[in-house]
């Protein structure tokens, strides 16, 4: 018999947490009945009744644990808190909205115990029910990321995965403040098997990810796992210097050899100054992005602050 921890980050999920618990429990009463579940719900500073639902659930079921954050720290922090407090031999991470079907758990468990893998990850092969523009930018992000960073990111990869104790311990060793889990999972290595499934729509409630939030998330991912933008800025800087040098030589030669003077050039000068000014601002911005992340890391603030939990230490 193994103990399997189920880590669930929840932000304003009062409508679905109980549903998720019941659906997952059905699996533990049938296909996985020889194994003991441990649920760790992380309430990420919800503003609805998620916390009271969790309190009730944990009173009714002794294998339900919860942690409640003092404010919204984000899904990445919630995942970290969940993994940190999970005590199972195998640990699964799952969204609260049933978009990660619990029915896949038995197959995942079979693979991880019988084959030589430390992580069974999932990716959705369709994005049915998602706005096309969102799918387009998501695809663009994944292909860009796989080109400019060392970690391998799979298109459509979800955070839904089953991991061994060893794998989770490796993840927990990465204590960085700016957590981009999809990258961290890849960074630690080990053998990962990918299961594919069709997209499932949210059981109830709404997605927490606006377009702007996703855009910020992808920028965070790039800054955390790639130095490509920095190299690119330097590269463009060098190219511009070469072009400027050639232009200077050209103007000198034209003046000295052919006697064509360089007067009346001010409109082109203005354009060039604006172009270079713009590029400088852009690259200072890129630099600032990295600096701000480094600044947050140096402060060594905790990844999350818990205000209430029922975990005995
Ligand atoms: N979530 C969280 N904190 C946040 C935003 C989301 O813990 O600040 C949780 C949310 O409750 C859900 C999971 O992360 O369990 C995925 O969120 P959602 O379903 O809104 O994202 P989507 O599936 O639309 O990408
Ligand atoms: Mg969802």
Rg, please? 25 Å
**How many angstroms does the end-to-end distance come to?**
23 Å
Query: What is the name of the CATH class?
Result: Alpha Beta
Uncertain stretches of 5 or more adjacent residues: none
Question: Hetero groups bound?
Answer: uridine-5'-diphosphate, magnesium ion
Shape: elongated
CATH topology: Spore Coat Polysaccharide Biosynthesis Protein SpsA, Chain A
Spatial ordering of strands, largest sheet: 7-5-6-4-1-2-3-8
Estimated helix fraction: 40-55%
Rounded mean pLDDT is 87
Largest sheet: 8 strands, mixed
Helix-strand layout with pairing:
Layout: E1 3-10, H1 17-29, E2 36-43, H2 50-60, E3 64-69, H3 75-85, E4 90-93, H4 105-114, E5 119-124, H5 132-148, E6 157-164, H6 165-173, H7 181-187, E7 192-197, H8 211-225, H9 228-258, H10 266-299, E8 306-309
Parallel strand pairs: 1-2, 1-4, 2-3, 5-7
Antiparallel strand pairs: 3-8, 4-6, 5-6
Helix pairs in contact: 5-8
The structure holds uridine-5'-diphosphate and magnesium ion (MG).
In short:
This protein is an alpha/beta fold and 313 residues long.
């Amino acid at each position: 018999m193994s103990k399997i921890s189920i880590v669930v980050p929840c932000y304003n999920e009062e409508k679905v947490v109980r549903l998720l618990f019941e659906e997952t429990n059905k699996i533990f009463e049938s296909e996985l009945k020889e194994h003991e579940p441990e649920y760790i719900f992380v309430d990420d500073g919800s503003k609805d009744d998620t916390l009271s639902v969790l309190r009730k659930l944990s009173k009714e079921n002794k294998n339900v644990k919860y942690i409640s954050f003092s404010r919204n720290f984000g899904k990445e922090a919630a995942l970290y808190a969940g993994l940190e407090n999970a005590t199972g031999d195998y640990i699964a991470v799952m969204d609260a909205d049933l978009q990660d079907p619990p029915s896949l758990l038995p197959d995942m468990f079979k693979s991880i115990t019988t084959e030589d893998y430390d992580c069974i990850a999932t990716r959705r092969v369709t994005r049915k029910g998602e706005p096309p523009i969102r799918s387009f930018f998501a695809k663009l992000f994944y292909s860009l990321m796989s080109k400019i960073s060392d970690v391998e990111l799979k298109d459509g990869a979800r955070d839904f995965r089953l991991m061994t104790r060893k794998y989770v311990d490796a993840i927990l060793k990465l204590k960085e403040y700016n957590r981009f889990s999809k990258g961290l999972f890849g960074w630690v290595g080990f053998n990962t098997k990918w299961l594919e499934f069709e997209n499932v729509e949210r059981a109830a409630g709404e997605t927490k990810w606006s377009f702007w939030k996703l855009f910020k998330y992808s920028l965070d991912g790039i800054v955390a796992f790639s130095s490509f933008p920095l190299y690119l800025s330097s590269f463009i800087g060098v190219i511009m210097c070469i072009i400027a040098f050639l232009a200077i030589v050209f103007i000198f030669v034209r003046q000295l050899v052919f006697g064509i003077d360089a007067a009346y050039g001010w409109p082109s000068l203005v354009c060039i100054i604006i172009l270079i000014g713009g590029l400088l601002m852009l690259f200072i911005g890129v630099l600032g992005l990295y600096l701000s992340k480094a600044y947050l890391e140096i402060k060594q603030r905790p990844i999350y602050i818990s205000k209430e939990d029922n975990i005995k230490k």
